[in-house]
Amino acid sequence: MPLDTGDTGFMLIATALVMIMTPGLAFFYGGLVNKKNVLTVMMQSYVSMGISTILWVSVGYSLCFSGDTLFGIIGDLDMAFLIGIGPSDLYGGAEGTIPLLLFVVYQMMFAVITPALITGAFVDRITFKAYLIFLVAWQILVYYPFVHMIWGGGMLADWGVLDFAGGIVVHTLAGMAALASVIYVGKRKVQDTGAHNVPFVAIGAALLWFGWFGFNAGSALAVNEVTAVAFINTQIAAAFAAITWLLLAWYNDEKPSFVELLIGMIAGLATITPAAGFVTPQSAMIIGVAAGLVCYYAVVFRKKKGLDDALDVWGVHGVGGALGIVMLGVLASESIGGQNGLYHGDQTFFLVQLAGLALACVWAFAFTYGMLMLIDKVTPVKVSDEAEQADLDMVLHGEAAYTE
Predict the structure, then answer these.
(1) What integer pLDDT is reported at residue 237 of this predicted model?
(2) Helices in 33-87 by DSSP H: which ranges?
(3) Is the pLDDT of residue 123 over 70?
(4) Which of 22, 86, 182, 254 gives 20 to 30 Å between its CA and that of 364?
(5) Measured distance CA(222)–CA(368) in Å, rounded
(6) Which long-range contacts (C-beta less than 8 Å, at least 24 apart) are formed by 80-86?
(7) Helices 128-138 and 38-55: crossing angle, nearest 10°?
(8) What CA dihedral angle connects 124, 269, 278 and 358, to 10 degrees?
(9) 360-397 pLDDT, tens per residue?
(10) Chain CA centroid to CA 328, Å
(11) How much is the pTM?
(12) How far apart are CA 32 and CA 201, in angstroms?
């Protein structure tokens, strides 16, 4: 089958859409933090665009999608530095419809944003040097193995685990890493003043919602009926979750909050991600409502337990991604993605999804916590109390977002 220009054109656009999500995340997180720490948190997202790209083309793509070693846990280095990949090679070989290099760069954008998601949990507390080490080590030890195990034909793929666009691979891993990070670094010494720039949050949320169509629909890797289903499911789940979350927050806080609406929308997007190309639009409505309810109360639970996950990465992305995997196990429809879930009579698939999710939760938490302990022996992970209470942007980067 020759290269398909329609599929290729669509995937070029989808790749650009996923790329814009990382700057969108920077604005979303930047608007939510104290005005003295804006650049610190935005820098963590933007630097991932550089470091993660270098790491991906050097060893990341090969470890994820080349060969199969360690019982299907990781790939090999046969394609390190993209050796052996020519401009005319197609993803999927002779049956492919898009250039292999396009698949490489599309997956690269996922690798860029996934570790950046974690940064919202430990804002105001992490040194930049420690973050750079963490950025590299976490991808190699946590992200790459699960990309290979699920999307690269590894162990979990052999089990039958499905994850359309990253419920486990992106959101669960990032959420559990966030939880481990928060427990390790502890609470902030300074009082959380809340969002300092709500328009920043809105701009970031808009870029994330816009980019998520490339994230989910693009994961079809072609233009077909599944692409359209994933596209509409993305919109449906985001809307249903946003309004569910808004109503809950309105009832409990007595005023309709714009920021709460935006956070609910992100929860819906994270939750539909693994199921977008495997469930019907009617199921996407159910998933959206479930995302608004479950993720909202996960955040309430987190606050009651006193865990200082500053921007609720665990409650929104971790719980949302995990919920999406469970809902996929229940609601998957053979008519959409070729696999039935528990509701349609396939109990085995549901149990497989739970097993893959459990492995991801334990792996991401344990490796992240252990990684932070080891990094602390090389360079301090946590900023000093004096730096935290001062202007962190100036202390770490010698720059300020605003001049008085």
Answers:
(1) 98
(2) 38-55, 61-65
(3) yes
(4) 22
(5) 34
(6) 81/57, 82/57
(7) 40
(8) 30
(9) 999 999 999 999 999 999 999 999 988 888 889 999 99
(10) 17
(11) 0.96
(12) 6
